[in-house]
Design brief:
Blueprint (H helix, E strand, L loop, with lengths): L1 E6 L4 H4 L13 H14 L6 E4 L3 H10 L7 E3 L16 H7 L1 H9 L12 H16 L5 E6 L1 H11 L17 E7 L2 E8 L4
Parallel strand pairs: 1-4, 2-3, 2-4
Antiparallel strand pairs: 1-5, 5-6
Helix pairs in contact: 2-3, 4-5, 6-7
Amino acid sequence: MNIYLVRHGETDNNYNKTYYGKTDCSLNNNGRYQASIIKNRIEKINFDKVFTSKMKRAKETAHIILDDSKYELIEDERLNEMNMGIFEGKDHKELEENYSVEWKNWCNNWKEYKIPNGESYIEFYERVKDFFEEILRGKEKDILVVAHGGVIKSIYSYILGENLDIFWKISSRNGDIALIKYEYGNIYIDSIIPVEI
């Protein structure tokens, strides 16, 4: 089984380096350009299934990179980015200044601390894990998943022995394409191709 993980193209929130997950924003011009590059790189692959989150930025990326007449997008809310609650739309400096208690609590226990009006990383990880394990039980040869940086990094953490601390030691940039292979009961990260080198 080949699982292709694509992080959506850039949004203004990415460009401005703010924390966001449930904020449902569209791609910016650069994000649409990145999606066009992805399209050229994967156009020869015939996917058996295509999954996206329910967020605009992921669906918009999928529509650009795929032939809409050929594929049905399966939207799955388990692929939505982590809900950042009161941190949504704010940058690092603003959180330290205006949400110092919550920021400190999150920094001290980022896995278990539930951001007010949001979710904890553990809650987020468990729903991503649930989706991914369901995919692994399937019989498809080639699957495309268009999702978010946090989702993809969580899948990496799962593959690398469910070591959640790995989350902060790896990157998933806008437009990256990762190929995950699952064969003979072994799952591994085969390659990660950046959209722009």
